[in-house]
Hints:
Spore Coat Polysaccharide Biosynthesis Protein SpsA, Chain A; 2 domains
Amino acid sequence: MSIHYYLLSKGRVGRQKTLSYFPEDVKKNHLTFVTPKPEIAEHRKHEYSKGIDFFGVDPNMLIGDKFLHVAKHHVKQGGRNFVLVDDDAALKLFNPETEKFSSTRKCDQGDVSRYLLKTFPKILKTHQAAGLGSLSRFSTIDWLKENKFCRLNRKVCCISGYDAEFIIPLVDNPQLSGLWCQDTNWNLEILLNGGSTYSDFKMVWESNLDPVTNPGGCNLYRTPESVNVSFLRIMLHYPGLISRGPMKVHAHSFLRIDWKPFDSPGYSVEKGFREGALIFRGELAFQKKTVQDFLAAVPKASVPWYKKRMKEMGLDKERRGLFQ
């Protein structure tokens, strides 16, 4: 099975954005629309659904678990490399002659198809994760030229491909179930286990979707409290690498990741324990929580793992004791 694109959507019947940026041959032969089972019939009433393959999932499945579910589904179909696609992005292709990006809707569709079905798959053959770059973050032509239109070992998201054989054993872990910031988890698991990530800027994505005026996706059920608990959890999974970022609308903007350790060998989870403990204590204080509050909020089956990790990090040596 060749590379396959899985567009994940929830709560946006009749309001599909990303799909319109894919050429017809890719949509009809290399793309599957992943949506809650009850929404499939509603989507099929719209023109954009013609010729599209649908894969229905449990309406209550959280996004991180949905990622893993899709990966396993892809393997069952005989595939290996697959791409997860958000439903609220615009795609743009770089034209080397004009040195400008143009909407893939306006580009030669053959050029767009060649990139999606030939250029991008080649990247995934040499990296365990690859994604389209974000135009909003690195938009200057000088930066692109200087960095050869790519960036290594940073987070790929929104339009991101993975090697299923590499990623599934790493993330098929009950401790990672139900976490927000699933892109972060997957990228860090790859980098911590000898893999590499690659962001390609020959085609880019951008998104300016307003969750208030165009609701849907994770915003339907993501709450500040569930995000805060996830931050505490991933701070223990990746000690020293995760800290609180600026307070903005999107959940991922609460999160700051230190990628510098991956620019050269040397980081290990154990080496991050000391700094991670300081960050975790600070985040608990910021959220005005006790350890008992935290442990009460994580999945019951995972409590022993989190207790063990906190002891490894020296967090059981607090003056009052963490586990009283």
